[in-house]
Amino acid sequence: MNLPNILTLSRIVAIPVIIFLFLTGNPVAQWFAFALYVIAAITDFFDGALARRMNAVSPLGRMLDPIADKLLVGALLIAFAFAGSFTTGLTWAAIAIMMREIAVSGLREHLGSEGVTVHVTAIAKYKTMTQLIALGAMLVVPLVPGLELAAHGLVWLAAVLTVYTGVEYFMKAWPHLSGAKV
Q1: Where residue 104 sits, what CATH number does that domain have?
Q2: How far is CA 94 from CA 49, 62, 90, 144, in A?
Q3: Per-residue model confidence as pLDDT tens digits over 32-82
Q4: Residue 27's domain spans which residues?
C-alpha cells in the first residue's frame, strides 16, 4: 500500500458520503458534499501523478484508478436521476455515459486477457475531466441560482466526449475483436 493507492481508495470511500450528503437536501450538507467531491476529484489527478513521480506505479493502482473514476461518476449519475435533478434528455445522456463506461471496461478486460493493452488516449483524459467538472456543477445546481443551464450543457458535453471515446476505443480494438491478423 502506497500513498497513490491510498488516495485512490479514499476516493472510493468518499463516494457514499458524498451521495448521502447530497441526497439530504440540506444546503449545508450539500456544500459539504461538493467540497468532499472536489477533494475526491483532485485525488484523481494526484494519485497517478504521485505514482509516476514516486516510482510507485502498481498493478493495484492501475486497476483501482479507473474503477474509482467509474464508481464516482456512476454513483453520482444515479443519485442525480434519483433526486430528480435530470430532465428526460439528461437521463438519456447519463445512460449513454454509463453504457460506454461499462462497455469500455469490458473491452479492456477482454483485450487484457488476450495480452493486448488498451492505452488511455488524451481525449479520454479530457472526457474524464469533463465528466468530473459536469458532475461537480450538477452538485451545486440546487445551491447556486442560474447554474442549471451551464451544468446541463456540461453534462451533454461529457456525454458526447464519452460516447466519442467509446467509439474510438472500439474502432482501434476492432482488428483484435474481428479475428483479423494484427
Answers
A1: 1.20.120.1760
A2: 28, 25, 6, 22
A3: 999 999 999 999 888 888 888 888 888 888 889 889 999 999 999 999 999
A4: 3-178
